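Appendix B. One record, verbatim.
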Amino acid sequence: MRDRAEDVVISGGENIATIEVEHALDSHPAVLEAAVVGAPDPKWGELLKAFVVLRPGEQVNEAQLIAHARGRIAHYKAPKNIVFLEELSKTSTGKTRKFELRERERERAGHTRRISG
């Protein structure tokens, strides 16, 4: 249940469903799959960070993908950062392990405990 609750990021007082952002990124022809999580931010509480796997042979940069997302969703919902990966870690049932991405971002930001909500 905690994992689902964290699929909503609160950034600057706005509730943002990560699935909506993922769909906007997935609609780009170069994107194979995307996962979006909240990354700790001292000013906004959390910022959206996307982890993207590109289709073989495709190229796109961070600015192009952010612009693509902004063309499909409200600007404040677009990710602020995109990390390109070879693959996303998955469970045995094929679900993306978003909790690993969240923990990675919290550790990178120096947070030792989860943001309560």
